[in-house]
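Tetratricopeptide repeat protein, Flavobacterium kingsejongi. Tokens?
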Amino acid sequence: MNLNDFTSILQNPGTVTTDTTPSLEAIVNEFPYFQSARALHLKGLYNQDSFKYNQALKITAAHSTDRTVLFDFITSEYFAAADTELSTPEEEAPAVPAIKEEPLELKISPIEASILESIKEAALHAVPAEKIPEQQIIAEPVLESDIDQPTVDLMAIPPEPTPEFNLGIGKPLDFSNDEKHSFQEWLQLSHLKPIERHTTPENPAPTVEPVIKIDPERQKKKELIDKFIETNPKIVSVKNATPAVSLNERINSESSYLMTETLAKVYLEQKKYQKAIQAYEILILKYPEKNAFFADRILDIKILQQNNN
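Tokens:
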């Protein structure tokens, strides 16, 4: 791929095809910090429905100075659009005028005419061949074992779908414009706990308790407040008070708002099976019309979880 070809693709990302993706991958391998090439290569992997896309998305985000630009790119219309090859209309061939074919008169020489006459005469005087009596054919009984049984093509029977196939594991994650939380969740790296170092000083300095001076005026006010609390312990509740919302209810409402099918797939790709199950349980409450679909996905996750244990 030369510079002109790359510039043309950069100006029109929709022209990325399966043929240009390997060339873009070669550019990325040679220039790993070339952000534009990585973005175009990412679109090529998305068009191919490649299993390399999800990991390439993480690497591209790590090399991007602004992840918001990358998010806007992968959620744009021309990114999700399939590659279209420009096809030039075929030029119609000029119509060839029809030529009237005149009937050709065959000219037969006298020698050929005499040969044809002799062939006709031989056919007329030919003696008809005697009819040979047909032999009577006795049909032998056919055994059931001799009858060809219909064979079953085992290759034609489709295999049962696996949980990985039903869950779409390995397929590119498809984010929408309002799924920034899911996008950030996929880009999260493993959090490392800080190393705790317990250092004990060789000669610890003696601790000296500070001397607190009590202000008599402040002490007098404190005694008055304590006396008031003892004599008036009850506080009248305010009517029409707003009901207190528990922290769990607020967290659940926020989780329901942020929960999407893409986020559930993110947890699956990260092998966080328990979180994925909880995600689909929230989606069942959020979209009751898809109850059966999400329930099947939960069963697939549990089977996958057992197989990986």
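The two ends are 46 Å apart (CA to CA).
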